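User: Reviewer 2 asked us to show a designed sequence for the structure in our supplementary figure. I'm pasting the structure tokens here. Could you produce the per-position amino acids so we can include them in the response letter?
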């Protein structure tokens, strides 16, 4: 009730003596400061909108153009070739405006039009320059004269110090590939997966599609590409994520881990205080567009950082609180007081209040989050029936409008000394699904803080891909440890304002029928979570440093490793998915690289059949180059899977059936892979502090009888693999597949560098990592 009283700015009572008016100066002060803060943000947004709107020019360049035109007129020459005079003729005649004043106004109007024309021309030139992708296909370390000229022109037209979204209007639209090219590449990709009879049948279906229905569907797709900035993204978001009715948990979400071998503080509330503060520092930089656009070798891009029956994505701007879950209770924790962001020590103080709160959960509240973990239909029905009005709707709105969701977990996770491999596996499963009711899987991301100070993040997939969340997470981890830090006792630094109001506990009225639905949802989610088999393999024998010495792309090396490991386990090849970014294009998200190729399968067979090492090395080089070629094509808009997906969507809109597209879209990805790269290496000191780096993250298996494999390179000497599959499939085992990966990695290095001596192994020269006690 105290929270409710503080929210009232004034109260009045009618008495026989008159009206008794009581003002709350604290509430009025909060309202005033909140308004000031809101207007400051509006001004910043308007300023950034102007700067971004005129990019690659600058607002000050307008003044330069005006002065140049006026100076030219002063010399009695007409740079407008009569246009200024025409403008002056059509100006509203005013008795108070002299002819000289009219001439100046006309010159300013002409200068403004000329300035806007120059901006349009520069932006058009920059868009054409950014459409050039040949640099990606050139040999590493060698740059053609054309590319050198292109780099110089991009730098000229890019201007100085771009904001986060400065390039948004200059990025080219995603091109629509030709149907014949997509069909040809598709048939090439499935050749190693089919016998002669199957391949002949699929070739016939593909040929029929290309010569008939394909061209008609392509026409509609090109029509969409003319008016849409990206012909894939909206349909991908809607049909792959938002219209999916299966549980988000395991099937769609992903996670990111904390530091592997070090915990900055063992105090749960302190860890939460620092990192929650860091999240809001990141949001402040985001609102001011101070985050640098993501840099590729010679071009600049930006991530889609602005987002946070079918589901919908809602973006709540400037939320000043987080929703917190602890032991079955939900709280609203405000992180702004009197218009200022609370210090890490104050947030720690508030978190500790929640941890010490003895209040029990409301009836039915403890496992309420299970509704978001089960299938979407039952959650949508329960939402309408039990959460569309009254106190339940108000509490649900608090959670959904929060900046993000926080779980104060009562377990300990991380690298345990007694059983490191098993502890990492448990840590991964906890981050992916937890207890199935202590996360809110609808939120854009949830942050988990464990009892021993470890943390992690769980991301929902529809609003953004993993690199976006990873970018935020890297910033938070680095800011937490290297900028904010802790005192000698492990608490956050700073002082506490003792007058801070208590975090507000949310109230619920859960009916018996709703409790039954919660129990059913929990049973569905628990069965799904229990079926997940997870293994985190931290490979420390060598890393990308040794791989690069073999003159091989580290990513291609790992993809060939996975092909070899899968073949050794299953005795066959499978359709393999590797995620590639399409950020070279406006609103680009991902494309698929089909890593199982004719070249990779030929190499694996040769190696397993005992072919001479020289033959195997030659085949490996060919497979690696083919993979790199496919990756570059995917990044430059020449992938096949998003094109086929959109053709399928168009066919459904038109009510047309395509046996070819139906089979293509039904093929299972039994090996789904993704590399999570470190994007902000400058935030970490891997040379002196190699232990201060995230272990990466992972996701659940895409196919019931397949594997999900996420991997990342830590510095030059460590490779982490996050392997998932399902216990219910008798032919998959995450730990056995991890053993196959370890063996394959070592075998490939031995193949590529057969003369390597044991004494020269990188493990002897790599920095020693201090393991936490």
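Assistant: Here is a per-position design you can include in the supplement:
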């Amino acid at each position: 009730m105290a929270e409710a009283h503080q929210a009232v700015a004034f109260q009045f009572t009618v008495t026989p003596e008159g009206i008794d008016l009581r003002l709350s100066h604290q509430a009025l002060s909060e309202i005033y400061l909140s308004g000031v803060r809101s207007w400051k943000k509006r001004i910043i947004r308007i300023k950034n909108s102007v700067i971004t709107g005129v990019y690659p020019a600058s607002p000050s360049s307008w003044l330069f153009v005006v002065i140049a035109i006026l100076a030219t007129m002063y010399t009695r020459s007409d740079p407008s070739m009569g246009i200024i005079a025409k403008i002056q003729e059509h100006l509203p005649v005013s008795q108070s405006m002299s002819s000289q004043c009219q001439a100046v106004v006309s010159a300013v109007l002409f200068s403004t039009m000329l300035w806007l024309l120059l901006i349009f021309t520069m932006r058009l030139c920059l868009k054409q320059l950014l459409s050039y992708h040949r640099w990606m296909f050139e040999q590493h370390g060698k740059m053609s004269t054309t590319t050198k000229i292109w780099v110089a022109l991009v730098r000229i037209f890019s201007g100085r110090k771009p904001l986060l979204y400065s390039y948004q209007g200059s990025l080219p639209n995603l091109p629509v590939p030709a149907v014949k090219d997509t069909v040809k590449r598709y048939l090439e990709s499935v050749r190693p997966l089919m016998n002669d009879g199957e391949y002949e049948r699929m070739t016939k279906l593909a040929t029929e599609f290309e010569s008939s229905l394909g061209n008609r569907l392509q026409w509609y797709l090109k029509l969409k590409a003319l008016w849409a900035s990206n012909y894939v993204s909206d349909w991908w978001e809607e049909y792959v994520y938002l219209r999916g009715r299966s549980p988000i948990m395991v099937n769609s979400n992903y996670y990111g881990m904390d530091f592997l071998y070090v915990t900055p503080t063992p105090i749960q509330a302190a860890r939460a205080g620092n990192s929650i503060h860091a999240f809001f520092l990141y949001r402040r930089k985001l609102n001011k567009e101070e985050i640098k656009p993501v840099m590729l070798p010679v071009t600049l891009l930006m991530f889609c950082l602005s987002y946070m029956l079918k589901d919908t994505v809602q973006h709540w701007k400037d939320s000043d609180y987080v929703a917190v879950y602890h032991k079955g209770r939900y709280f609203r924790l405000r992180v702004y007081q009197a218009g200022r962001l609370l210090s890490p020590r104050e947030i720690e103080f508030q978190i500790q209040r929640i941890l010490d709160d003895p209040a029990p959960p409301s009836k039915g509240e403890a496992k309420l989050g299970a509704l978001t973990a089960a299938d979407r239909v039952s959650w949508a029905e329960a939402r309408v029936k039990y959460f569309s009005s009254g106190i339940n709707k108000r509490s649900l709105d608090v959670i959904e409008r929060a900046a993000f969701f926080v779980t104060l977990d009562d377990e300990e996770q991380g690298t345990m000394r007694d059983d490191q491999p098993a502890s990492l596996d448990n840590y991964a499963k906890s981050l992916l699904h937890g207890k199935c009711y202590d996360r809110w899987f609808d939120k854009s991301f949830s942050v988990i803080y464990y009892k021993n100070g470890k943390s992690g993040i769980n991301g929902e997939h529809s609003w953004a891909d993993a690199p976006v969340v990873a970018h935020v997470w890297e910033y938070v981890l680095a800011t937490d440890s290297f900028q904010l830090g802790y005192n000698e006792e492990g608490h956050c630094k700073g002082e506490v304002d003792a007058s801070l109001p208590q975090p507000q506990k949310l109230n619920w009225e859960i009916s018996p029928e709703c409790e039954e639905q919660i129990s059913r949802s929990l049973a569905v989610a628990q069965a799904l979570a229990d079926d997940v088999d997870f293994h985190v393999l931290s490979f420390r024998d060598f890393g990308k440093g040794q791989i690069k010495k073999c003159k091989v792309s580290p990513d291609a090396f790992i993809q060939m490793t996975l092909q070899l490991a899968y073949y050794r386990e299953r005795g066959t090849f499978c359709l393999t998915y590797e995620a590639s970014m399409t950020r070279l294009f406006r609103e680009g998200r991902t494309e698929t690289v089909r890593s199982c190729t004719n070249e990779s399968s030929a190499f694996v067979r040769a190696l397993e059949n005992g072919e001479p090492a020289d033959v195997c090395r030659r085949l490996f080089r060919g497979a690696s180059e083919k993979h790199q070629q496919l990756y570059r094509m995917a990044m430059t808009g020449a992938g096949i899977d998003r094109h086929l997906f959109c053709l399928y969507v168009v066919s459904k809109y038109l009510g047309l059936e395509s046996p070819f597209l139906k089979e293509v879209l039904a093929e299972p990805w039994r090996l789904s892979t993704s590399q999570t790269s470190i994007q902000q290496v400058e935030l970490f000191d891997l040379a002196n502090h190699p232990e201060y780096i995230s272990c990466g993250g992972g996701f659940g298996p895409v196919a019931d009888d397949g594997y999900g494999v996420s991997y990342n390179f830590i510095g030059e000497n460590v490779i982490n693999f996050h392997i998932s599959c399902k216990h219910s499939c008798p032919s998959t085992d995450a730990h056995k597949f991890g053993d196959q990966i370890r063996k394959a990695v070592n075998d490939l290095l031995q193949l590529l560098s057969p003369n390597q001596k044991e004494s020269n192994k990188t493990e002897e020269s790599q920095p020693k990592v201090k393991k936490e006690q």
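For the response letter, you might also mention the following. The domain at 254-294+320-532 is CATH 3.30.559.70 (Chloramphenicol Acetyltransferase). The mean pLDDT is 85.
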